[in-house]
Each structure stands twice: as structure tokens, then as C-alpha cells.
Specification:
It contains 14 helices and 20 strands. The protein is of the alpha/beta class. The protein has two domains: about 30-245 and about 355-410, Alkaline Phosphatase, subunit A, CATH 3.40.720; about 250-345, Gyrase A, domain 2 (2-Layer Sandwich), CATH 3.30.1360.180. The structure holds adenosine monophosphate and zinc ion (2 copies). One zinc ion binds near residues 38 and 73.
Length: about 400
Amino acid sequence: MKHLFQLLFLFVAALAAAQSNDASQLGKPYVILVSCDGYRYDYTARFHPPNISRFVEQGVQAASMISSFPSKTFPNHYTIATGMYPEKHGLVDNTFYDPARGELYRISKRSAVEDGSWYGGTPLWVNAEQNGMVAASFFFVGSEADIQGVRPSYYFPYDGSIPNEKRVEQVLEWLSLPESRRPHFISLYFSTMDDAGHRYGPGDESQISKALLELDAVLGKLFEGVKSTGLPANIILVSDHGMVDVGPDKLINLDPLDQDGRYLIANNGALAHVYLKEGADADSAYAFIRERENHFRAWRTEEFPYYRSGLQNPRLGDFILLPEYGYYLSDSRRIAQARNGQFRQGGEHGFDPEIPEMHAIFYANGPAFKAGLSIPSFRNIHVYPLICRILGLPIPKGIDGREEVLRGILAE
Ligand code: AMP
Ligand code: ZN
Ligand code: ZN
């Protein structure tokens, strides 16, 4: 009941702010971008979820979609939303420090998550709204923030406890609005596979298939509901990254490094950023850390090979700590909790996106797409210009994604 009121309130609040489609946008198709957090590329072939499998067979499927480094939730959602690598759009990790602001960003800090000044680039919903096209979001990283002073006409602050079915019902309601107020770009987000992957590990066949069937049932309702609107609506199913089994015995204790007051560490598990404090000597701090390497390696950020754009974003820090594949950076408190069973340590992600277990999904279906087409793996920076092309939106200069990479999947 609480959720219902919450939803009603937010919806009314959102309605008050809603703009309407410019006349030039009225004849345009619709795009629903659905993110299934942590859906590893091989789950569909392994578990045959019926609705997703049918959707895939009748549409376009990529062998996999390759995440951007690091293969974490916030950097990758926002890469899909902007067409930029994380070191360019600025959400370089789930937790990071901004030396110029003197502040930490973290996904549980609502004041930062909702503050548009942390976010670079022009996310799809901002691009749409700036061009007189109504956009809506039932969750997507960045969509609660006033980026460039713009939010989607309809959106909700993140609340993971809102049932998946409610999210789908809301999307279908948006599609039944009068044409002038009906959003042409809609984002939707489910954490089901990420939750199960972390808890049980991707190798747990029974738990992963159970979660996938739950998600598949909800997606079935979305596919069915969208179809029955008769609108020229296209659904794109993506994920942000894969998942690999990491048991409690593979956690690395970083506390011995923390004892040094010369720097701040933002630990994201699959990597950690080290920010030198003012006046600290870089060489001796680096030597101090390197002497304590233990199933991880320390890099000077300018020598670190995983950032593809070559940009030196100060948010990356002075040094980067990278665990050996299969290990995960942690601390003594969490390690004790994992080992005495206070929480289940099953799977993790964030590692090198080229590693197959980190690969994500890309499936698309609708009148804009060819039917029954399989394509090779591609990078997630290319989704943005694809959606711009379908919706007839301008492609901002300076993004990393290129329109020609996915042009061939369109039916045009
Ligand atoms: P992680 O696995 O740590 O990379 O992050 C996944 C978690 O991010 C999910 O379990 C969600 O609870 C959380 N999440 C997803 N979207 C948002 C959002 N817009 N605001 C806050 N948390 C979010
Ligand atoms: Zn994720
Ligand atoms: Zn996760």
C-alpha cells in the first residue's frame, strides 16, 4: 500500500512538470531501453527463459556486449546513457573522490546521486527533452539528477523495493497517455540478476535460473503489453556487465594500506583508487603500497592500461590497485562477516571488460530492427548513437560511440 501512495504521489508530482512533445516529434517511433543489471551474456543460452528467448529469436542479438572499464553498475549505465567512456562522462566508478570538489561520490549518497553537477555528457533523456521530445524513466543511473538542469518529464528517485511488476505497469501506463504527453524514450531497470549473482554466484544453476525465470515473467508482461498498444515501439534489452564466482576465501584485506595517513582510498573491490593528500610524497607512498602487494598490483594511474580513451580524469586518483583476476579487494571487517556467514559472498564484477565472464547482453526487437539477426560482440558506447538514429535525435559531438557500428541492425 505504501508503494502505491508513493507511486501515486510521484506520478502526480511528475505530471506537474511534464512537458509535451513538439509537433515535429509526434510521428516518431518509441524506444524502451531496459537494463537488466548483472545479466551475463551466457544466461539466455544456459537457461532458456521462454519470453526472452522468443524476443531474441525474432529480433537482433549480439554475441555479447562489452562493458567499459570498470565493469561496475554506475559507470556502465551512464556509458550506455551517454555513449561516452566512464573517464569521459565522469562517473568513473560506483565510489570515487573528486579532488577539485573535495567530495566523495557513492551510490548510497542520495545528495550526490541526485546532483546533476557530478554528471558529464548528455544522457538520452536529456537529449530527448532538449529537443522537445518527452522522456520517462523508471530508474536508470543519472535519471534522478538535474543534468544540465534537465530531468525526464516522468521519473522516480531510486527505490529498489518497488516490485518489478509495478515498474512494468507504469511503463504501460505511460504508453497509454495521450499522444502529446506520451514519452518516446523510456528507460526501465531491474536489479534481479545482479542481486542473485552477488548472493549465489553465477555458477549456482538453480538460483540463477530461478531469478532469470522471475525476470522473464515480468519481461513477458512488458513485451505483451507493448505489443498490444499497437505503437511503433522498439524494445532494447541490455545489461551493464556480467558476473564471476568470487568466494569468501578470495577477499583481500586492504586494511594494512589504510594505516597510512598520506592518501585516501576509494575501494570498489575489483579496483581501488588512491588519492594522495596535499603535500604527500608520491614516490614514497607508491613504494609503501607496492611493498604490501598481496594478490593485487598497484599502478600509477598514468601507466594503467585499461582506460581506452586515454583521458586522465582526476577522479581516477593517483594510483590504482588491481586485484588478480578472481580476487576482490575488501577489508578485515567484511572478510570476517563473509567467513562467519553473516552475508553470502557469491559473485562479483568490475574486472577487465574483455574477460568473457564480464560480458553483458544486447537484444533488440521492434519495427526499427531487422528480424532474426545475430551480430558479433560490440562495445556498449555504441548504443547511444543507435537510439539517437531511431528517434531522429542529434548525436552530440565528442562522444565515443559511433553510429556506423550498429547501423546494419536497423530495418531501414
Ligand atoms: P553494484 O553491483 O554494486 O555495481 O551496484 C548494483 C546496485 O546498484 C543495485 O543493487 C541497485 O540497488 C543499485 N542501484 C541501481 N540504480 C541505482 C540508482 N539509480 N540509485 C541508487 N542505487 C542504484
Ligand atoms: Zn550492475
Ligand atoms: Zn553488482
